Amino acid sequence: AQKITQTQPGMFVQEKEAVTLDCTYDTSDQSYGLFWYKQPSSGEMIFLIYQGSYDEQNATEGRYSLNFQKARKSANLVISASQLGDSAMYFCAMSPPQGGSEKLVFGKGTKLTVNP
Amino acid sequence: EPEVTQTPSHQVTQMGQEVILRCVPISNHLYFYWYRQILGQKVEFLVSFYNNEISEKSEIFDDQFSVERPDGSNFTLKIRSTKLEDSAMYFCASSPAIRFGETQYFGPGTRLLVL
């Protein structure tokens, strides 16, 4: 079974600095996808970034990048130049291999607070 | 940009009552999902739906839950007899396909409170 672990219940960062949110995963599958979602206090789930297990380069989307280390089974989210609006819960999630289950498996999340 | 919408945003109900949560997925998407998030906990998969039938469901999705696509745009989750432990945020999501790496796009959620 797939499992996502986010060991940081809360993180603090100063505005304009970079922050790394940790995510480790456990799976016996060879192919899988990794996602990060942002959940502001208003509650919606916003897709941020995706990394496929066979992608050789780390994914980037604007200020978001994913530090993917397959051997370590980690997929950390890096947010550069933090902004006050980045304060939110961040969830790491995994999707199954092609032809397998359709569900996303989520971690427990990390609450990020950006201080002015 | 197309988005998933959900109504109502908040619902308060009495234990034992039926509730219907509504979702309008992104128009060209074919796969639909319901997830729930109990306050302060992680998001959990409930059910996936494709081609007018359930394709996968979790152990949480018992006989009191049902899903339906009554027309070409709406996707509903019905809870027949609500329990206190059904209080949660319910998210609808959709994706265009089940291809590997396809992103699921989430709606804003319905916050359900069962009293």
Structural class of chain B: mainly beta
Number of strands of chain B: 11
Can you give the mean pLDDT of chain A?
A: 92
Instruction: Give the number of helices of chain A.
Output: 0
Largest sheet of chain A: 6 strands, mixed
**Gyration radius of chain A, rounded:** 14 Å
Oligomer: heterodimer
Portion in beta strands of chain A: over 45%
Mean model confidence by pLDDT of chain B: 92
Distance between the termini of chain B: 37 Å
Radius of gyration of chain B: 13 Å
In short:
By secondary structure, chain A is mainly β. In chain A, 0% of the residues lie in helices and 50% in strands. Chain A is built from no helices and 12 strands.
Features:
heterodimer, A: 116 residues, mainly beta, 4-stranded antiparallel beta sheet, 12 strands, 50% strand, globular, B: 115 residues, 7-stranded mixed beta sheet, 49% strand
Overview of this protein structure:
The complex is a heterodimer of chains A (about 120) and B (about 120). Chain A contains no helices and twelve strands. By secondary structure, chain A is mostly beta strands. In chain A, strands 2, 5, 6, 10, 11 and 12 form a six-stranded mixed beta sheet that branches. With about 120 residues, chain B is mostly beta strands. Chain B has strands at about 5, 10-15, 20-25, 30-35, 45-50, 55, 65-70, 75-80, 90-95, 105, 110-115. In chain B, strand 7 and strand 8 form a beta hairpin. Classes of the chains: A mainly beta (about 120), B mainly beta (about 120). The interface of A and B includes residues 43, 103 and 108 of A.
Topology, please?
The complex is a heterodimer of chains A (about 120) and B (about 120).
Chain A: E1 3-5, E2 10-14, E3 19-21, E4 24-26, E5 33-39, E6 46-52, E7 60-61, E8 64-69, E9 74-79, E10 88-95, E11 105-106, E12 110-115
Parallel strand pairs in A: 2-12
Antiparallel strand pairs in A: 1-4, 3-9, 5-6, 5-10, 7-8, 8-9, 10-11, 10-12
Chain B: E1 5-7, E2 10-13, E3 19-24, E4 31-37, E5 44-50, E6 53-57, E7 65-68, E8 75-79, E9 88-95, E10 105-106, E11 110-114
Parallel strand pairs in B: 2-11
Antiparallel strand pairs in B: 1-3, 3-8, 4-5, 4-9, 5-6, 7-8, 9-10, 9-11
